[in-house]
């Protein structure tokens, strides 16, 4: 069995027992207060993508497996709601009271991140990017569960980066993941949302 497949299976197993993609963090359990400034929040738009590194050993495993330039373990979509900004994302029920699609206030999402790890990017397109947030709200209303199998061919459940990839594919014709890829360690890479040809950097707390 190929090393990448073995890694993928190991990571998928850890979701069940420890909660992949968000690590051990839950709302209200931040290790230290971490937030965006008012000026930074003012830069954000409906449909932006937010990525972060979570706390906990599972987040450590994800970062160590992916070995990416940026230190990341989770991602979501920024959406305007009730006059404020929220983050819509997919979370495993192993680290949350509910499984799958969830929405948290922006600063609450940031506070659960490893200090200095938040990155925000924006799709380069002439089209209205608010459609990204609208589609995320659609999945949220449907209460789509978390994809514990990491099967991108299964349309009934979604893991965090799969949520974004599917919305960009269906709504904007952008193929973030190669359909021929089967290796989780490759197909789930967060750096695809930082590709400067496809995405504009809005905030970079990691300052690469």
Written account of the structure:
It is a single chain. The protein is 33% helix and 18% strand. Helix 1 (3-18) runs antiparallel to helix 3. The protein has seven helices and six strands; from the N terminus they run H-H-E-H-E-E-E-H-E-H-H-H-E. It has a single domain (3-204), classed as endopeptidase domain like (from Nostoc punctiforme) (endopeptidase fold (from Nostoc punctiforme)). It has helices at residues 3-18, 38-43, 57-66, 106-111, 130-142, 160-172, 184-187, and strands at 49-52, 74-81, 84-91, 100-105, 119-123, 199-204.
Indicate the topology.
Elements: H1 3-18, H2 38-43, E1 49-52, H3 57-66, E2 74-81, E3 84-91, E4 100-105, H4 106-111, E5 119-123, H5 130-142, H6 160-172, H7 184-187, E6 199-204
Antiparallel strand pairs: 1-2, 1-5, 2-3, 3-4, 5-6
Helix pairs in contact: 1-3, 5-6
